[in-house]
Amino acid sequence: MKKSIEKSDLYQLHLLSGLKASPSGSRLVYVHTQMVEAADEYEKSLWLHQGDKSICIYQKQKFSNFLWENEHTLLIQKPVEQEKTEFVRLHLDTLCITPAFTIPANVVQLQRISEQRYAYLAEKSVQRNNDDDTIVLTQIPFWDNGVGYISGKRNHLYVFDEESQLSTALFEGNWHVENLAVSNSRIVCSAQEYTTKKPLTQGIFTFSTDTLRKTELVSCDTLRIEAVVCEEDTIVFTGTDMLEYGNEEAADFYSWTEQQGVKKLLDCEHYAYCNIVSDCHVGASTSIMMKDQIVYHLKNENGRCLLYALSMDGRDICLTPSGNVIRDIAVSGQGCYTLEMEENALEEIYLRKPDDCQKLTNWNAEYLQTHMQAQPKEVLYTNSEKKIQKGWVLYPADYVEGKQYPGLLSIHGGPRCAYGNVFNHEMQMFASMGYMVFYTNPRGSDSYGEEYADLRGKYGTIDYEDLMAFTDAVIQETPALDSERLGVLGGSYGGFMTNWIITQTDRFQAAASQRSVANWTSDFGTSCIGYTFDPNEMQTTPWKDVMSIWKASPLAYADRAKTPTLFIHSLEDYNCPLSEGLQMFTALQYHDVESRMCLFPQENHELSRSGKPKHRLRRLQEMADWFDAHLK
User: Fold this and answer.
1) Is 322 a catalytic residue?
2) Where are the alpha helices (DSSP H) in 486-541?
3) What angle separates helix 425-432 from helix 613-631, to the nearest 10 degrees?
4) Which of 54, 151, 285, 492 is catalytic?
């Protein structure tokens, strides 16, 4: 008999990431991560896949990144200690480790130019700080989620020569560099200079690897840059002018060569990286690569994320039309290595060739075979514009015909993210507990095009309408769902919408609002993305039209709330700051609405996805206890 899915099953899941192919493409190294209960941490190891098997090549030693130096050697970056970054070499034929070099800086990213020569980004402080424990702020953003206070900090660009042990600075001062890419002949990056307010746009710069001569390809005030890749003297980057759909607009593809200059390759309606929601992703991933003058990239479409090949003449061909969700790629002469989630499954590694797809790993096969997974059932509904939209319902794992069950409406974050037919541990756990879990991609979600995703100035209107219409359709099509025992939950944008829902209707008997937004005016001044994201989404600022911002804030209607609500917030969430959850909790307490708040120290916005294992389990237990108490 198969087992129910429980909160502690997180310890059994194998999480993969960081796919990197060897120069020949015949070998693949990837990161394997698993939660360890006793240590309350994530244990990472490096695995080498060659032929038909994977072997562990590096474990029980902490590392932050790695790259191939040649077919037989990996360069491994260790965590920064005392403003120094150590690198070691792992010789794959013997699995011996030898010291490589140490750079006296906090290295953020390193790329190999040629033998013993590297380009790297290092974090430097450019502001004057006090000589005590006080914190000085001189810019916005002054903090960043998962990082902490960043005022005065910049990423500078250097070239390091291993033989001389010397670094040559290419960008210093108030310049902040991102998106580093390297070929034999060029170093390419995006960069912007600022003092007090970090802008959204960056320039594209290239340096010749022999003379280090700098060339500006795109001015600093033109595009918001998302990614840069290069091969020999051809550069491809993604960027948006943000003119039609604002700051969150999908980035278009551009190319540059000395002969043609900058040319637009492709107008995009979809993000070129995986934005499909799951709580079973962890670790770094690559969503765009260049090989043999072809740009391989991901694209979100209709709740899926597929692999495309973009040629230099602008043709963009889908390589995985029957795929589901791809999160990571490593392109080689052997084909495309991909990290994929098949429908309602966990991630595994595949090798895709033009006429073949081979599954290389089965890390999670035993778990899926021995545990009861609820299979999602599609539900179609009509929105206010008479257009058909899709959602899903997970039936309880022990579903019995004729019995009625409580239900949970789950709302994703973003809002420009999307649900798909993938394995979500949290949802499966609730299904195993006897809940019907239903979820959809309301207007504002990603993967259905720019117009569909455009929620600017419409928060709490068309998105709320879609969620209520979907709930109506689920109730109508699912006789086993007890409409008198409904709960609602969500995080980030989903937390905002949960706050909004409990102030607009009392059809839900319980709610769990996580890492939420309650007041757009206070969020503007405290969130690490507040001064950029909020004016874009609200289409105004507190000084231009504070009343329209207030009317879009759940806090404005908190005196109407009647739904018992659990609030969950991380103390170091700088994306949706703690003050947002506290304001909503205080409002409900003040108006005598049953409410509870659980705060997580040393956690940030990523609690549900990469928080400490025991905290992730506590979060799930808090919600399970809350919904059981009010819906069962």
Assistant:
1) no
2) 493-504, 520-526, 530-538
3) 40
4) 492
